[in-house]
Amino acid sequence: KSHNVWVSRPLFPEVLDHLAQYVGVQAEATERKHTAAELREKLANVDGAIIGLSDRIDSDVIAGNRRLRVIANLAVGYNNLDVPALTAAGILATNTPDVLNETTADYAWALLLAAARRVSSAERWLRAGNWRGGMRFDDWLGLDVYGKTLGILGMGRIGQAIARRAYGFGMPVLYHNRSRLPEDIERECRAAWVEKDELLKRADHLMLVLPYNAQNHHAIGKVELALMKPTAVLVNIARGGIIDDAALAVALREGRVAAAGLDVFEGEPAVHPALRELDNAVLSPHIASASADTRRAMAQLAADNLLAALGHGPDAGHPPSLLNPEVRGGHETKT
Ligand code: GLV
Ligand code: GLV
User: Fold this and answer.
1) Ligand 2 environment, Cβ below 6 A
2) Alpha carbon nearest to ligand 1 atom 5, residue
3) How many domains does the chain contain in total?
4) pLDDT tens digits for range 79-103
5) Tens digits of per-residue pLDDT, 165-206?
6) Do 230 and 310 share a domain, yes or no?
7) Which atom of ligand 1 lies nearest, measured to the CA of 239?
8) Is-cis flag, bond preceding 172, omega within 30?
9) Residue whose CA is closest, atom 1 of ligand 1?
10) Is there a single domain that holds both residue 179 and residue 135?
11) Does ligand 1 lie within 6 Å of residue 210's CB atom?
């Protein structure tokens, strides 16, 4: 085989088999976070790599690497990649957009419904053997979802998939995004653009679907939480660091925000201890895109990107989801 690749984590065997038809594959057998030194060493002798969100690829990791041609991220978000540094080094970077839109949108609704209707805490209470004396008429009272106004902060393709589901719940949709959607898409999503502050004030429930970057760090902090309705549920399926988790824990404890459904955390896998104490927070370990079909599709897309970048397979030379097309041309001559 003319190329060798590294896969930083366990992956579906059929995807690894597919890769192995074209390239030499070295795949890790266990899931763990690699240090910069480990990444530098692993990437030194391969032509490409499939990596996960916990692997941070920056200029330090690729410094002096003359061989590496492609980094394929196993995620749509790529805040773990320093794309300008990869571009400067002539290394292609790819992600896994679109294949996860619908599955991720489903999960945003799962968190909203679970947090509003207290599914997780009710189940903990039941499993602990507390349920005696029949159905409790005036206990476990939650918040309605249907008919309320849904707010969506960040209206990319996942935000739009969330918005389309709101119709079935009879929910008007307000959104805020740096750029307004084209009118036909606004109409299809039945969503109206508003300023961020207005969104925070008017949303009965709010979903966060922003990419993480320096501008979006703590996009929801103390000030923003104070604008929200005390009956609102806040859902984050995007990235840790978009919410100031310490400030959210205070708001949830004081009832200034009713409940939260959180799939991502600042500094995950660590979760702010104050959040773990709260019954009105539904917490999950970054699983929004984790249906079997979608995770397999993401792995397959990452493999297709990697192979195409190395000149193999049906898309040879044209990775389907290239993040830095400006590298193109440059990498052909790289030896
Ligand atoms: C998951 O968080 C992703 O970005 O795909
Ligand atoms: C967020 O990650 C999006 O792509 O909308």
Assistant:
1) 76-77, 154, 156-159, 209, 211, 238
2) 75
3) 2
4) 999 999 999 999 999 999 999 999 9
5) 999 999 999 999 999 999 999 999 999 999 999 999 999 999
6) no
7) 2
8) no
9) 75
10) yes
11) no
Atom of ligand 2 minimally distant from the CA of 158? 5
| Domain co-membership, 132 together with 181 | yes
* pLDDT tier at 136, thresholds 50, 70, 90: confident
Q: At what angle do helices 157-166 and 101-117 cross, to 10 degrees?
A: 50
Please give the span between the terminal C-alpha atoms of the chain, in angstroms, as a whole number.
17
Print the domain residue range for 48.
4-99+292-333
The answer on 189 and 316 residing in a single domain is no
CA distances from 308 to 35, 40, 292, 330 (A): 28, 23, 24, 15
Best residue among 289, 291, 301 to mutate for probing ligand 1, ranked by most atoms within 8 Å of CB: 289
C-alpha pair distances (Å), 163 with each of 104, 215, 233, 234: 12, 24, 16, 15
Catalytic-residue membership of 69: no
Provide the 3-class DSSP secondary structure of residue 81. Answer: strand
Annotated catalytic residue: which of 239, 272, 295, 312? 239
Half-sphere exposure of 103 (CA within 13 A, CB side): 18
Residues 168 and 225 in one domain: yes
76 lines ligand 1 (CB under 6 A): yes
